[in-house]
Amino acid sequence: MAVYTVFVLCVFCFQYVLGNSQLPLQDDYHGAKPTRGEPWPLPQIYTPSAETFSLNYLSFEFQVTGSTCDTLAAAIRRYEEIIFGDHAKIDSRLKFFPKFQRFSSADGNVNKLSVHVQETCDTAGNNYPSLESNEAYNLTVESPNSELIANSVWGALRGLETFSQLIYEGLEGQLEVNKTTIQDFPRFKYRGLLLDSARHFLSVEILKKNLDAMAYNKFNVFHWHIVDDQSFPYESVLFPQMSAMGSYFGLSHTYTQADIKDVVEHARLRGIRVIPEFDTPGHTQSWGKAIQNLLTKCYTSGKPNGNYGPIDPSLNSTYDFLKKFFGEVAEVFPDHYIHLGGDEVSFSCWQSNPQVTDFMKKMSFGTNYAQLEQYYMQNLLTIINSLNKGYLIWQEVIDNGATVRPDTIVEVWKGGYQAELAKVTKMGYHALLSSCWYLNLIAYGSDWKRYYACDPWDMVNGTQKQLDLVIGGEACMWGEYVDNTNVISRTWPRAAAVGERLWSNMKVRDGAKAAPRMAEHRCRLIRRGIQAEPVNGPDFCEHEYRGV
Ligand SMILES: *[C@@H]1O[C@H](CO)[C@@H](O)[C@H](O)[C@H]1NC(C)=O
User: Fold this and answer.
1) Does a structural domain hold residue 142?
2) What residues are annotated to the active site?
């Protein structure tokens, strides 16, 4: 991230050099007028019409006609509240003013949405989302009965979200929806968002609010960068001293096992997988506070200097610890995948340590510390294999030459991603793009259009086979400058640009065309309690965020 820091600084210099940063950048989407009842992300096949129906919360009902399960029942309750919540409240006040009649010129009513899920959705294997989940659905909005059909419950969740977005307020405040047909499915099966709860502690409430926003944007993976150098908030069952000593401020800055269950369940009910990242061997200063001899002692002039480097790969005790620790992680997090990090490993401390140097000799690694890193990673991967879990890693592991299992997912995060994607997929690995979606790198203006323009298929000379190995991407909000006070508003709606890129057809690329829909979507998020910041310059929402 050092590279990026320089880049950020330069963005600011650049603006100063150019002069008055209050002047709008030329191609910002100023004053884009919000659409009414148009979905975000745009469905694959979307046929709206000008025929308008009205909806009334007293007569409207959801009807489940296929399989059902807790996920579907909970989703229907949520969308009832999202669609009719305010209206039911407003109407219960209005009954004291019976003369008030709402005006509607609608062509009829929509009285029902039947929801038909074809597969059973309550059996083991079907009740937690996976990389292979089928999220396709068909939606027909018609009067008096509308219909949502999906193969799996995960598709039904996406369809319910779309249905709720098609409904808008008419000019008199009445609920309306246009006759529409939709056939929809995601372009990429991995649509992730990373939050970092180690640089600043994020509360369970904020994590859950972020999951809500993810569901409103059809994201399906929460990459939880849960620990790092600065703090270790994960409360381990086997090693409780790690958070006791490694968290920022004792129990108030930790995640208990119950907290984790709460987050994972909140995500599951929204069709979102939770992939935890326990980044090693670098980024582990907080781990070393409680675990003796885990980190490498750094030396100056033949003596330990009191500093610690990455995890010490030369000791057997390291791997005994990792086996126990990841054994626990594998049970606590139900997803098949764990993110193992592997980024930004500094070799200088390893180089200074005489025992590590001896080990290098013993292993005939010469002075090739990348080989030592590979040795560590391969031992770790063997441990994860034995736990029957899959893994994601940052690109450096591959860049440093480690061989990994064929189904490994390599996350590309550095600049020059077009060549890196080509390299990684040529080696046959699955790839995930995040380089162009570091949302923590803020800049003045409508920066979402940059995120919108970037595409996971921007690969140097990629063959179809290589393109097929790109399973999606991830928006990242690193935590150095965000905490509970601003993480939601800084992430949203900017992450929505990534959401549409990963879901919609690749031809949906015109930011200027998307801007009015983005304007409506931001207002929709605000209406639903997400404090989504302005992204199109001067504008307004009919229902503004009021600070409560
Ligand atoms: C919905 O219908 C209204 C009224 O006919 C029309 O003005 C509007 O453009 C339609 N919306 C969409 C998304 O087609």
Assistant:
1) yes
2) 344
